[in-house]
Design a protein that fits this description.
The complex is a heterodimer of chains A (138) and B (368).
Chain A lengths: L5 E5 L3 H13 L3 E5 L2 H10 L4 E5 L7 H11 L8 E5 L4 H5 L5 H5 L4 E4 L4 H20 L1
Parallel strand pairs in A: 1-2, 1-3, 3-4, 4-5
Chain B lengths: L8 E5 L3 H12 L4 E5 L2 H11 L3 E5 L7 H11 L4 E7 L3 H9 L4 E5 L3 H61 L5 H29 L2 H6 L2 E4 H18 L3 E6 L5 E4 L1 H17 L6 E9 L2 E8 L32 H11 L3 E7 L3 E9 L4
Parallel strand pairs in B: 1-2, 1-3, 3-4, 4-5, 7-9
Antiparallel strand pairs in B: 6-8, 9-10, 10-12, 11-12
Helix pairs in contact in B: 2-3, 5-6, 8-9, 9-10
Classes of the chains: A alpha/beta (138), B alpha/beta (368).
Chain lengths: 138, 368
Amino acid sequence: MTNPKKILIIDDDPDYIAGIKPILERADYTVEVAHNPKEGFNLFQARPFDLLLLDVNMGRGAEGVAVARKIRKNPKYNAIPILIITGIREQLAFLFPHESVQPQFADLDGLLEKPIEPKVLLEKVSTLLKLFEEKKNI
Amino acid sequence: MDRLDKIPRILIIDDEEVVLDSCTQILKKGKYKISTAINGESGLQLLNEFQPDLVCVDLKMPGLSGFDVLNKIREIDPNIVSIVITGYSTVSSAIEAMKNGAYDFLPKPFTPDEFRLIIGRGIERRELVLETIALRREKEMMKEHFAAVVSHELKSPLGAVQQNLYLLEDELSEKLNNNQKELIERMKTKINDLINLIHTWLRVISVDVNKLKENFKKISIETVISKAIENFQHQATRNDVGIDTVVTSSTIFILGDEGTLVEAIGNLLGNAIKFSRPGSQIKLFSEVIDDQAVISVNDSGVGISNEDLPYIFEDFFTGEPGLKKEKSSGLGLAITRRIIEAHDGTISVSSELSQGSTFTIKLPIIKT
């Protein structure tokens, strides 16, 4: 495999990462991991990734959303696909009780609810990467 | 308002400059920030800018009387502690002021010690009031965030367990015999049930009627129904059950929250699918009767027994299992009822064993 795609996972739960990282690695992706939003954002800036897997609630609230916003603001990498992974279906409503959910996530590329079946995850990731590739070539 | 950590602020309102001066003088060495006003009007004007913790008011002043000032202060911020300063002969009016919410009174003339003492006690009172408010607010916040916190704390570990199980199954897939695969399947199902139960349970406590009402908008019943059907179409198809929609009115508008109404009607649809025989039809009617939107979901499934009927909208009530012996949390209809009642609507049911059930929701419409 030449030039394997690079994926960054930002999630505060090492046990969850343990269950998801090997799935991606077995599909030949290069995976790096950050356990908090700050570390994740720095890592993301430091080297080019092809896709970001982002947890929403990392201890205090909607840190994941803040990370996504920061990334989207920067034209250098605002096209890189962000796939939100959240364990809490109703989380979005809880976190933004006075806003409708959609605008918050309008410019994100996907949202999967944890736990994620390996097949579903790999399909979503490959779809997003393909879309990103097409966008780059235009 | 809550500045327990800061220097207490005291506002003194009295028409005698001598009193203002001496009061300031007395408290000068103390740990207070002081502001003064020569009459009621200017005192009230200072209120917003100075944000006092405690106000001393002379009862007898030209212009706005001390009573008027007290009333206004209470209107603006009932948590400001007020102390009445009064001539010795008007003790009775001081008592009247206390009946109206003043914390204490101080008859003129008073000694510096008396003044310091009463101010000290007033400030203690203020701290107590602020502490109570802070505690109450914390309690409200806790209640509000409880659902979010529990959700995270319970579901995260379960999600991680399940994710690891998925991985394990994936990695071992070729090595496992059928029996072992069955075991993993069983674990996955159990964990999934648990995740869903937590989800449903949290929905019950998080459907906050007042909060829902804050966000009510004009919405169309048609949209609600079509979204609810969309959510359940695949499940219906899988169970070989059809959904017919019978709409007899033009567009019906109501004031409400679309998301939760879609959920409520979805719950009814989901139940209808669960209890319907393959090949049968579910009918969804919507019409306007007496200024009410009437939406009913009718199935020709197993029906509900007369003994169960009165309890089906209660929390955690589970009747007979569905045709596929699906697990039920016993909360779906309870949530539905809460949602409908938050919309000032009603929900009712009629059913006959082995004939089917009809659930009817009535909601007040917006008249055009």
